Amino acid sequence: MAHTPTALTVTHNPDAARFEARVDGLLCQAAYRLNNSVLDIYHTGVPQALEGRGIAAQLVVAALQHARANGLKVRPTCSYVAVYLRRHPEWADVQQP
After folding, report:
1. Contact (Cβ atoms closer than 8 angstroms) between residue 45 and residue 28
2. How far is CA 52 from CA 6, 22, 32, in A?
3. Which parts of the chain sit beneath pLDDT 70?
4. Domains, the chain, ranges and CATH?
5. Residue 66 · residue 19 · CB < 8 Å
6. Could you tell me which residue ranges the N-acetyltransferase domain spans (predicted)?
7. So what's the pLDDT on residue 76?
8. Which CA distances in Å does 2 have to 49, 62, 78, 88?
């Protein structure tokens, strides 16, 4: 059963190279590597107890907004991010060709 998306406060933690949020005390994250002007998002992690709430999507959107605001391109090596970008063509401008 799908839940209503949980409104999150996503923070950018550049020291840990990830966008993160705590939900019910659990860490959710979208981890990246920054290579020149390419944000390689290689892992999106949401604890199993929190799946289905739209948390991963909100983490990815925060990372994409950051990329767009800072003139970066995104390389989606995380399968979730690749699927998200295919489903949301409005982010095509930040995707690495």
Report:
1. yes
2. 10, 15, 22
3. 1-6
4. 11-94 (3.40.630.30)
5. yes
6. 11-96
7. 96
8. 12, 22, 23, 20
